Amino acid sequence: MKGLVIKNTGSWYTVKTDDGQLIESKIKGNFRLKGIRSTNPVAVGDHVEIITNQEGTAFISAIEDRRNYIIRKSPNLSKQSHILAANVDQALLVVTVNYPQTSTTFIDRFLASAEAYSVPVVLVFNKHDLLSEEELHYEKMMCTLYETVGYKCVEISAETGEGVEQLFPILKDKISLLSGNSGVGKSTLINRLIPHASQRTAEISDAHNTGMHTTTFSEMIELPGGGYLIDTPGIKGFGTFDIEKEELTSYFKEIFHFSKDCRFSNCTHTHEPGCAVIKAVEDHFIAASRYQSYLSMLEDKDENKYREAF
Ligand SMILES: Nc1nc2c(ncn2[C@@H]2O[C@H](COP(=O)(O)OP(=O)(O)OP(=O)(O)O)[C@@H](O)[C@H]2O)c(=O)[nH]1
Ligand SMILES: [Mg+2]
Ligand SMILES: [Zn+2]
């Protein structure tokens, strides 16, 4: 039987079969994936083949080739990685101008790594209801900046439901990864989109203006209008450790655009004469915050800190 892995808790995988059954499955003992050294060879979003047994559970016997997958390096085992999700159509990055404040560096690093994985990103500005006039103005400016670069932005309040309907056509029939710092309202948004999901949400801690991690396993949640949302614990971005320094330019869309006019083809846009990127920053065609994020990623590479970027 064929199915889609929609949940992973420890060694158990919940597989939704093509005829709509949910079957708890395990990986066969000797099951290995070619070329990937991972702590979990199967991930949510994988299309698998299963063999059922008398107890009503099943073994996963084969896995279909992935269109893409998102990995995170295991914190302990340096050579191994953890697959967070496979076959992702897009990522929804939930950000907040305040409560807690999401930094532009965080957003830009996430966007750059998503570019590296060819995963389109939609920026979801949440907690609209909490913002002051000034913060709303800042939110608008951020939206304009990122729309100009080429990312779709929506402004919502997951708590009140304001603006959430803009997400329906975006999410329809797609597998969407939900990301964002802890406390920005990912679980609240899921509850809003899927009334019966009953995601646990956390009270934000006033003292630090940050939330607590309350989501502890990978799960795909089926949307009433078709499609799935993946709410994965603690994703701060994609695994970026295999981005080459020379490639970094191409992961910042507007920097890449201007870099074609740099005098040197291997220009790093830091000090070179005739650099069209630096000129574009000076002329305000490229936002200073974006350029700073680019420089900070480049610096991490220099110091070989890149592996810990997220
Ligand atoms: N006022 C307001 N509060 C919100 C909104 N969205 C979420 N919250 C609150 O913010 C807090 C954190 O929300 P969660 O949904 O738990 O955040 P999360 O992103 O799932 O956090 P983690 O699971 O830790 O990653 C909760 O107290 C929510 O009620 C919003 O749009 N407006
Ligand atoms: Mg949560
Ligand atoms: Zn340059």
UniProtKB/TrEMBL annotation:
<dbReference type="GO" id="GO:0046872">
    <property type="term" value="F:metal ion binding"/>
</dbReference>
<keyword id="KW-0342">GTP-binding</keyword>
<feature type="binding site">
    <location>
        <position position="267"/>
    </location>
    <ligand>
        <name>Zn(2+)</name>
    </ligand>
</feature>
<dbReference type="InterPro" id="IPR030378">
    <property type="entry name" value="G_CP_dom"/>
</dbReference>
<dbReference type="Pfam" id="PF16745">
    <property type="entry name" value="RsgA_N"/>
</dbReference>
<dbReference type="InterPro" id="IPR027417">
    <property type="entry name" value="P-loop_NTPase"/>
</dbReference>
<dbReference type="InterPro" id="IPR012340">
    <property type="entry name" value="NA-bd_OB-fold"/>
</dbReference>
<keyword id="KW-0378">Hydrolase</keyword>
<keyword id="KW-0547">Nucleotide-binding</keyword>
<dbReference type="InterPro" id="IPR031944">
    <property type="entry name" value="RsgA_N"/>
</dbReference>
<dbReference type="GO" id="GO:0005525">
    <property type="term" value="F:GTP binding"/>
</dbReference>
<comment type="function">
    <text>One of several proteins that assist in the late maturation steps of the functional core of the 30S ribosomal subunit. Helps release RbfA from mature subunits. May play a role in the assembly of ribosomal proteins into the subunit. Circularly permuted GTPase that catalyzes slow GTP hydrolysis, GTPase activity is stimulated by the 30S ribosomal subunit.</text>
</comment>
<keyword id="KW-0862">Zinc</keyword>
<keyword id="KW-0694">RNA-binding</keyword>
<feature type="binding site">
    <location>
        <position position="262"/>
    </location>
    <ligand>
        <name>Zn(2+)</name>
    </ligand>
</feature>
<dbReference type="Pfam" id="PF03193">
    <property type="entry name" value="RsgA_GTPase"/>
</dbReference>
<dbReference type="GO" id="GO:0005737">
    <property type="term" value="C:cytoplasm"/>
</dbReference>
<keyword id="KW-0699">rRNA-binding</keyword>
<comment type="similarity">
    <text>Belongs to the TRAFAC class YlqF/YawG GTPase family. RsgA subfamily.</text>
</comment>
<feature type="binding site">
    <location>
        <position position="275"/>
    </location>
    <ligand>
        <name>Zn(2+)</name>
    </ligand>
</feature>
<dbReference type="GO" id="GO:0003924">
    <property type="term" value="F:GTPase activity"/>
</dbReference>
<feature type="binding site">
    <location>
        <position position="269"/>
    </location>
    <ligand>
        <name>Zn(2+)</name>
    </ligand>
</feature>
<keyword id="KW-0690">Ribosome biogenesis</keyword>
<protein>
    <recommendedName>
        <fullName>Small ribosomal subunit biogenesis GTPase RsgA</fullName>
        <ecNumber>3.6.1.-</ecNumber>
    </recommendedName>
</protein>
<keyword id="KW-0479">Metal-binding</keyword>
<dbReference type="InterPro" id="IPR004881">
    <property type="entry name" value="Ribosome_biogen_GTPase_RsgA"/>
</dbReference>
<dbReference type="GO" id="GO:0019843">
    <property type="term" value="F:rRNA binding"/>
</dbReference>
<keyword id="KW-0963">Cytoplasm</keyword>
<comment type="subunit">
    <text>Monomer. Associates with 30S ribosomal subunit, binds 16S rRNA.</text>
</comment>
<feature type="domain" description="CP-type G">
    <location>
        <begin position="77"/>
        <end position="238"/>
    </location>
</feature>
<feature type="domain" description="EngC GTPase">
    <location>
        <begin position="86"/>
        <end position="236"/>
    </location>
</feature>
<feature type="binding site">
    <location>
        <begin position="180"/>
        <end position="188"/>
    </location>
    <ligand>
        <name>GTP</name>
    </ligand>
</feature>
<dbReference type="GO" id="GO:0042274">
    <property type="term" value="P:ribosomal small subunit biogenesis"/>
</dbReference>
<feature type="binding site">
    <location>
        <begin position="126"/>
        <end position="129"/>
    </location>
    <ligand>
        <name>GTP</name>
    </ligand>
</feature>
<dbReference type="InterPro" id="IPR010914">
    <property type="entry name" value="RsgA_GTPase_dom"/>
</dbReference>
